[in-house]
């Protein structure tokens, strides 16, 4: 009987140990029954990055919600915790609220997404015949180039196709800084930007526009990147440089969801892979979740280190 009691005691000890390990794992996940709310921004690249992060967070054991958010308004949501995280923040276009709430420690920058980026002014390559001297920016100031780009709404200025108004942009400031005879006209949406680029290419109609990469449209249209004018003043509003892309979380994120925090710090996005998925969604009309799931299913070696980081 004494031996039986010893075995019982050992069994109880083992059960307690297993329970403790389970509790430790639960504690590491944190508030796993409360959804992590990820910001879904306007552009497809951000949709891809966010859905990959979301599907992998679900694999770890979390609930995830996707919340449509504007590029500037998202920072209010991150500051008050109504949004949990945003995984693709282009730091060249964050408005005035981002530095304010970052300084107040209401949000936390958890590092680079490692997305290789480009941003600036582009044109369809045939424009080099319309505006001799391109890609140098001074070619745009020549009268024949301004006239070719002029429209009834901008005459006598040329028309510069800018980002949608709610994205924010530096183009109008840079045009003014350099006394360039152009009027920046906001596009209605990302889709409108791409449609104009494709239309200009097809009809050989003059176009200069603000754009960025990675983007599927760059794989399907022959474009040049303008060598930008010099910065009149150093600063975000007056210069365009390849932007850093970071991951931002609500300040209480790490304490509430420790494993998710470790995962998002490790999470990266390859520009070439993202662009392939963007092409599948935007051009081929495939379902975003299905495209992302296919990538996740086929690329465990890429994402396993991120998930392992969450396990500690």
Automatic annotation (TrEMBL):
Database matches in Pfam families: OpuAC
ABC-type glycine betaine transport system substrate-binding domain sequence ranges: 35-298
UniProt cross-references to SUPFAM superfamilies, sorted A to Z: Periplasmic binding protein-like II (SSF53850)
Origin: domain of life: Bacteria
Protein name per its UniProtKB record: L-proline glycine betaine binding ABC transporter protein ProX (TC 3.A.1.12.1)
Organism: Mesorhizobium escarrei
């Amino acid at each position: 009987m004494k031996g039986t009691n010893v075995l019982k005691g050992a069994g109880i000890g083992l059960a307690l140990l297993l329970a403790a390990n389970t509790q430790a794992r639960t504690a590491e996940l944190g508030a796993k029954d409360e959804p992590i709310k990820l910001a879904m921004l306007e552009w497809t690249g951000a949709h891809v990055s966010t859905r990959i992060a979301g599907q992998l967070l679900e694999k770890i054991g979390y609930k995830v919600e996707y919340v449509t958010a504007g590029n500037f308004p998202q920072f209010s949501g991150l500051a008050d915790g109504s949004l949990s995280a945003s995984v693709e923040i282009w730091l060249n276009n964050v408005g005035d609220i981002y530095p304010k709430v970052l300084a107040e420690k209401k949000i936390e920058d958890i590092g680079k997404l490692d997305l290789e980026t480009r941003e600036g002014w582009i044109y369809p390559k045939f424009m080099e015949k319309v505006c001799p001297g391109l890609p140098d920016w001074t070619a745009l100031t020549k009268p024949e180039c301004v006239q070719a780009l002029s429209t009834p709404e901008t005459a006598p200025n040329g028309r510069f196709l800018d980002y949608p108004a709610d994205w924010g942009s530096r183009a109008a400031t840079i045009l003014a800084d350099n006394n360039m005879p152009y009027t920046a006209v906001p596009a209605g949406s990302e889709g409108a930007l791409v449609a104009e680029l494709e239309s200009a290419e097809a009809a050989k109609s003059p176009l200069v526009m603000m754009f960025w990469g990675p983007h599927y449209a760059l794989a399907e249209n022959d474009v040049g990147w303008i060598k930008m004018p010099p910065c009149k003043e150093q600063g975000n509003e007056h210069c365009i440089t390849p932007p850093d892309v970071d991951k931002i979380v609500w300040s209480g994120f790490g304490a509430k969801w420790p494993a998710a925090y470790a995962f998002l710090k490790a999470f990266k996005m390859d520009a070439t892979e993202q662009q392939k998925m963007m092409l599948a969604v935007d051009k081929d009309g495939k379902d975003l979740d299905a495209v992302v799931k296919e990538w996740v299913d086929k690329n465990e070696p890429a994402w396993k280190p991120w998930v392992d980081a969450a396990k500690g």
